[in-house]
């Protein structure tokens, strides 16, 4: 076993665990504030959810997944393996505690507060990215096209009025387009689509993997260090963490630690006694290099729960929510189902030269992330649980993490994101 003491003689040192968008933005902000930072990633940078997601800067998506009326939808989630949300029945039995917290979070009063917590992050999201994109030389990644929510039938809008009112009450705007106006903006869209909503201020990244990897390169150019290795254990001294221990046995010591391990954060937090209820919520996509159609806006199909995003490497059809844990075999039929639904929206879509992918959103029961100290171990900060919004909230989370490690006042009210709220 070798000892690797980082920065003990110079400026304070930080180990960040997890090389997804959240770990990388945290690492950049920390190195910029003068810390000696080592980012530890078990596979490669952007190995997890941060690579194959839909890339949306969903800055007005402040409606949590659990909301009033959600219980009535649960039987469908259990019974229909091809629906937009699925719970694998055997997994349902192991996640009753999480599910109880999820249902409780969906009361009217709780949803109001959750929406405020998401709104704060949303309002800061775009401005936090701008300097990072500029410094990394990747401003071209952010595409200026707003997301279009597509409806098969106009009545879906009034059925979802609660969501639209909640967005309006938080000052997020959207514009109704008739079917003809929708096709004027995107001529490839079929007549099956009755109308759409243009989500004001939402835009998208045309390659989320390039985003995370380029930011990781920026981190290294600023003096940060990336280490490939799996963190297996922690060592403690006087109520503080002293070192992380890798699968190889190597010990990495530091003054501060940040856990940004996405859907794997639950396991690591158990070792610290914090037991964060982060569930792995799988999502699938198919990226089609020769799609045979050109669209500019990302298209979000309301009923299907999936997104069609024009990425640099092809058209990505991705989304759906599946609760089945981290160890279950992926069910790529879900990816194929949404491609066949996408063909109804874009009749000229062909399926040539395609790649399928599964990734795991780190999901808290209330949709809010955890950005807070450990309440058990003094020098540990958590940055995880960003669910379906981790790309959107990546840059602002990095700033907040650096505030916490530094002990500086934060520009946002962090009480929404406490690690001990469940
Ligand atoms: C299909 C799909 C579509 C999505 N679309 C969008 C979207 O349009 N907009 C949006 O904002 N968000 C979207 N998301 C959500 C977004 O992708 C995630 O919220 C975000 O990527 C989470 O980032 P993260 O850094 O927390 O986790 P991850 O990207 O999963 O990174 C965690 C990293 O930690 C590493 N790790 C884990 N354990 C250890 C360990 N013990 N030691 C060392 N390393 C470890 C993993 O290998 C991984 O690389 C989508 C997600 C999915 C699945």
Automatic annotation (TrEMBL):
**Protein's UniProt keywords contain Zinc-finger:** no
The record's GO molecular-function terms, alphabetically, read: oxidoreductase activity
Q: Does this UniProt record's set of keywords contain Nuclease?
A: no
Alphabetically list the UniProt keywords. Oxidoreductase
Q: Which GO terms describe its cellular component?
A: cytoplasm
Q: Which Gene3D superfamilies match?
A: D-Amino Acid Oxidase, subunit A, domain 2, FAD/NAD(P)-binding domain
* Extent of the signal sequence: none
Chain ranges of the FAD dependent oxidoreductase domain: 14-404
Q: Which Pfam families match?
A: DAO
Q: Known PANTHER family for this protein?
A: GLYCINE OXIDASE (PTHR13847:SF289), SARCOSINE DEHYDROGENASE-RELATED (PTHR13847)
Q: How is this protein named in the record?
A: FAD-binding oxidoreductase
Q: Which organism is it from?
A: Maribrevibacterium harenarium
């Amino acid at each position: 076993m070798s000892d690797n003491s980082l920065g003990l003689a110079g400026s304070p040192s930080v180990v960040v665990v997890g090389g997804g968008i959240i770990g990388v933005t945290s690492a950049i902000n920390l190195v910029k504030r003068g810390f000696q930072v080592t980012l530890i990633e078990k596979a490669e940078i952007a190995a997890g959810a941060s690579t194959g997601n839909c890339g949306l800067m969903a800055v007005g998506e402040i409606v949590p997944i659990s909301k009033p009326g959600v219980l009535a939808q649960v039987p469908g989630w259990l019974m229909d393996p091809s629906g937009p949300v699925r719970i694998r029945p055997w997994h349902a039995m192991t996640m009753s505690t999480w599910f109880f917290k999820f249902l409780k979070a969906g009361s009217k009063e709780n949803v109001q507060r959750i929406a405020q917590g998401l709104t704060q992050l949303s309002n800061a999201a775009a401005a936090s990215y701008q300097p990072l994109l500029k410094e990394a030389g990747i401003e071209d990644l952010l595409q200026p096209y707003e997301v279009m929510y597509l409806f098969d039938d106009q009545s879906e809008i009034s059925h979802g009025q609660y969501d639209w009112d909640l967005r309006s009450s938080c000052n997020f705007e959207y514009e109704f387009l008739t079917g003809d106006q929708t096709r004027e903006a995107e001529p490839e869209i079929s007549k099956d689509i009755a109308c759409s909503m243009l989500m004001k201020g939402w835009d998208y990244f045309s390659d989320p993997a390039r985003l995370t990897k380029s930011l990781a390169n920026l981190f290294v150019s600023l003096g940060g260090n990336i280490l490939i290795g799996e963190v297996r254990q922690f060592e403690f001294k006087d109520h503080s963490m002293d070192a992380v221990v890798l699968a190889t046995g190597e010990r990495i010591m530091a003054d501060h630690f940040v856990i940004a391990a996405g859907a794997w954060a639950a396991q690591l937090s158990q070792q610290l006694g914090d037991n964060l209820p982060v569930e792995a919520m799988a999502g699938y996509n198919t990226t089609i290099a020769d799609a045979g159609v050109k669209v500019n806006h990302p298209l979000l199909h309301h009923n299907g729960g999936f997104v069609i995003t024009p990425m640099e490497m092809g058209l990505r059809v991705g989304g759906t929510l599946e609760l089945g844990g981290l160890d279950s075999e992926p069910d790529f039929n879900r990816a194929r189902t949404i491609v066949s639904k996408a063909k109804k929206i874009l009749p000229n879509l062909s399926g040539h030269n395609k790649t399928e992918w599964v990734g795991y959103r780190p999901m808290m029961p209330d949709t809010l992330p955890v950005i807070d100290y450990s309440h058990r171990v003094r020098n540990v900060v958590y940055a995880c649980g960003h669910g379906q919004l981790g790309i959107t909230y990546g840059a602002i989370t990095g700033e907040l993490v650096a505030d916490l490690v530094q002990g500086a006042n934060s520009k946002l009210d962090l009480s929404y994101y406490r690690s001990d709220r469940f």
